[in-house]
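## tool: complex_structure
## caller: assistant
## args:
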Amino acid sequence: MTTATAPAPAALPSAGGERPRNLIATGVALTCAGATMLFGALLAAYVELRSHTNEWVPEDVELDNYLGNMLVITMLLGSLTVAWSVSAVKRGEGRQAAAALTITAGFGLAFINLLSYTAARVHISPEDHAYGAIVGALAIALGIVVIAAIGLALLTMFRVRGSQVGPDNPDQARATAWLWHFATVASIIVWYAVIVRK
Amino acid sequence: MTDTARTANTGWLTTADHKRVGLLYLLFSLLFLLVGGALGVALKAELATDGVQIVGDNFSRLFSEHATVSVFLFLAPAWVGLASYIVPLQIGAARVAFPRALAFSLWLFVGGGGLLLVSYMVGSPGGTRSLGLTSAAPLVARRGGANDATDLWILALMLLSLAAVIAAATLAVTVLRLRVPGLTLRRAPMFSTATLVTSLGILLATPVFLAGLLMLFLDQHTGGRLFLPSTGGAPAVWQHTLWLFGRPEVFLLSLPAIGAACDIVATHARRGFLDDRPLQAAIGLFGILAFGAWWLPDNAARALVLPNPPVLNAVLGGVIGIVVLVLLGTVVKGRVKAHVSLLFVVGWILLLALAAANGIIAALVGVEGRAWTEGFLHTAVFGAPTLLVAGAVYHWAPKLFGRHLHQATGGAVFLLLFGGFALLGLGDFLLGYNDAPARLADYPPGEDWGTFATLATIGGVLLALGAVLLVADIVRALAGKARAAEEDPYEGLTLEWAAASPPPPHNFDAIPEVRSPYPVLDLRTGAAK
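## result:
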């Protein structure tokens, strides 16, 4: 038995050409813009609170330039290694890229460790004064951004090892570098506000 | 339960399909609307006439809960839900940019919403007289640390803010990067354009609120070290973070409504816009002006929503006026086929006109921070966009549910919602002009505000009925009892009408080619060849 063939539904012609990429890099760029607003709000609060008191920094706080400088240097070293990883990905050196990303994550962990050590060493406690509370808020925000950067670095490392990130698709490696550079710039600005300008 | 049914149910919980995530966002937000609406009715019933005691000493707590639930758990996530579902279809994408991130944001929203409700159940965040986000004053820090309700409240708002940021980033990248070849930003549908601008605004404004919440948490656990002047803190820090977030937010919630109104009108007028350039400019300008609302920082300490400066009001009114004029021209030149969603667009314009007229009056007589503020919130900030959420659901129902919602029921929903918001707003405005303060549990003796208060109460009851009817109509469609929808029931213009109703998991069988803002119209008229 034959059945009447229904007319084919109108279909739009298929489009050609490459699909646009850079999804992760665009997402990270937008997230960094949002994070800039977060740090901007916290730094504005720092300046506002500082204007409300004559005793800034409080007497019981012993700011340590050495530890502050080491925090920034650690992040800068991470920026170097993450840039190395992007270069390696573009050259198709997967093992080298994975090593660079692992070292970058290591610098991140060192930063978190040093941040918690610094907080204990300089006797900053949020319960004691407004200074302690706002510096604590800045440290928490910085820690969260660095932890996110570590997570993305490790994820990218695994994807490099799994050949999902490579010379033809370096988007995620580039995005990882952007997030890391953002964390470095944020740490430098916080260091300048809290350690240098006080 | 069969294995297939069990798998299907699990599929909804673990899904990363933008359509399912969008639908879940929408359904949960409607559930929270019913909660917020019920609270609103109870509060307005308390104020209906002198001496009524329904919520009693809980007025402040429930007022805070009503406002927070309505905005954070209904209006914002309802737009996220609609955008998550519709935008990828409008731009010819098979998915959103980060499907798992969007799904993660959904469950953050649901978890945060649940925690927010629990926080109000276990106590009163910030103390019994605290008004939460409805007042610019920070929560009162207690000696010995925060109570459980306060901790849960802050955590819930952090989760909700994080969900908003993740969803905004996902939707922005989707529009920026996943448009089908040929669909330039200039050719993108208005709802997608509005979603992009809104998402960028949310991405910039919400992190400021997150910073404020982080400081509020520390403040609450340190006896007020950050916000209490007696301990070296500054309340202005909280007020300004809330202001910097809240002022743009109240405008950004209206932006998707503009985009939805444009697409609804063009679709049912069955022709392209008279001119789409002013519309895109208006959407972009509205997004920028949302941040222009940072103007008047000196008022930050008094209230979150105040009458705008007259110049800003005039510019905002001009922007909306341009949109309305282009839409009117499109209708006049088009071949309009009646659809209930057009009623919601008309209601949206009328509510904005009501708010604008009262904005002008407020500027002339100098009303600030009184019951007038609630009238502005109930009409322009919450009412008009909510009306358009309902209109958008009726318009895109064939894609959302694969079925048409009932047109007559839609008409009733419109009458109840529009009438409700108009009466509620009018009552509040009149109370404001008669010097009634906002957020008041009982009227002082001797004040003759009963008529206006009763007007507002009747409006609240109508709104609640409208919300229940809307949810009932959606449930009916989800249960498969509504009329099945064809692929392109309206002779649509944009790409969502080229997908099946409801669309398959991959949305389109072929990636369509686009050479104008109206590819489906081109296909019908043969212009795509």
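## assistant note: Chain B touches chain A through 57 residues (CB under 8 Å). The radius of gyration of chain B is 23 Å. Handing back to user.
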